[in-house]
């Protein structure tokens, strides 16, 4: 997801640092959201057990994979839609 | 993510990332507290946590940490795969 250096003038120091930081921020946010969503969908909310059940564990693995796939699909579709509607800059 | 940073820029970035990590850690704790409180505490006839609520919170914390570890591993795998795929597409 790095858009630096495609024939544009050299980015400044601040821009380079900001770009890396922003990329990591996006990754961290995605990580946090995935945990919230998959915990909500897969983990028994009554917390009768302190251990993760086998079924819950498998659910979490699948949820993570689906989350990534859905994220990518949505991202691409938004880009397509934005371009089709003649709108603004792509991401 | 190799933006070709100088040593000074690298140091600046490291500092920023450290701050971000602390922030992220606080965020994780906050989410855990919210989640376990919402799941376990619903009896306000007393101002002290009941035994049941306390036990639930303990199990919730342990389970949440196990969940986060597992999801963290899945996330790293999926993120690496996605990054590799994007780099291949870009060629």
From TrEMBL, chain A:
Membrane-topology descriptor: Peripheral membrane protein
Q: Which GO terms describe its biological process?
A: protein insertion into mitochondrial inner membrane; protein transport
The principal location of this protein is mitochondrion
Compartments where located: Mitochondrion inner membrane
Coiled coil, from the record: none
Instruction: Supply the alphabetized keyword list.
Output: Chaperone, Disulfide bond, Membrane, Metal-binding, Mitochondrion, Mitochondrion inner membrane, Protein transport, Translocation, Transport, Zinc
Q: Which GO terms describe its cellular component?
A: mitochondrial inner membrane
What GO MF annotations does this protein's record show?
metal ion binding
Q: Which InterPro entries match?
A: Tim10-like, Tim10-like_dom_sf
Q: Which residues form the Tim10-like domain?
A: 18-79
According to its UniProt entry, what is the function of this protein? Answer: Mitochondrial intermembrane chaperone that participates in the import and insertion of some multi-pass transmembrane proteins into the mitochondrial inner membrane. Also required for the transfer of beta-barrel precursors from the TOM complex to the sorting and assembly machinery (SAM complex) of the outer membrane. Acts as a chaperone-like protein that protects the hydrophobic precursors from aggregation and guide them through the mitochondrial intermembrane space.
Quote the subunit structure annotation. Heterohexamer.
Family recorded in the similarity comment:
Belongs to the small Tim family.
**Notes on the domains:** The twin CX3C motif contains 4 conserved Cys residues that form 2 disulfide bonds in the mitochondrial intermembrane space.
> What is this protein's record name?
Mitochondrial import inner membrane translocase subunit
TrEMBL record, chain B:
Membrane topology type: Peripheral membrane protein
**Ranges for domain Tim10-like:** 15-77
InterPro entries to which the protein is assigned, alphabetical: Mito_inner_translocase_sub, Tim10-like, Tim10-like_dom_sf
Q: Which GO terms describe its molecular function?
A: metal ion binding
Q: Which domain of life is it from?
A: Eukaryota
For this UniProt record, give its keywords in alphabetical order, as a comma-separated list: Chaperone, Disulfide bond, Membrane, Metal-binding, Mitochondrion, Mitochondrion inner membrane, Protein transport, Translocation, Transport, Zinc
Q: Cite the Pfam families for this sequence.
A: zf-Tim10_DDP (PF02953)
Q: Name one GO biological process term.
A: protein transport
Q: Where in the cell is it found?
A: Mitochondrion inner membrane
Q: Name one GO cellular component term.
A: mitochondrial inner membrane
List where the protein spans the membrane. none
Outline what the protein does. Answer: Mitochondrial intermembrane chaperone that participates in the import and insertion of some multi-pass transmembrane proteins into the mitochondrial inner membrane. Also required for the transfer of beta-barrel precursors from the TOM complex to the sorting and assembly machinery (SAM complex) of the outer membrane. Acts as a chaperone-like protein that protects the hydrophobic precursors from aggregation and guide them through the mitochondrial intermembrane space.
- Give the record's subunit note: Heterohexamer.
Name the family the entry cites: Belongs to the small Tim family.
Q: Which PANTHER family match?
A: MITOCHONDRIAL IMPORT INNER MEMBRANE TRANSLOCASE SUBUNIT TIM9B (PTHR13172)
How does the entry describe the domains?
The twin CX3C motif contains 4 conserved Cys residues that form 2 disulfide bonds in the mitochondrial intermembrane space.
Under which name does UniProt file this protein? Answer: Mitochondrial import inner membrane translocase subunit
Upper taxonomic classification of the species?
A: Eukaryota, Fungi, Dikarya, Ascomycota, Pezizomycotina
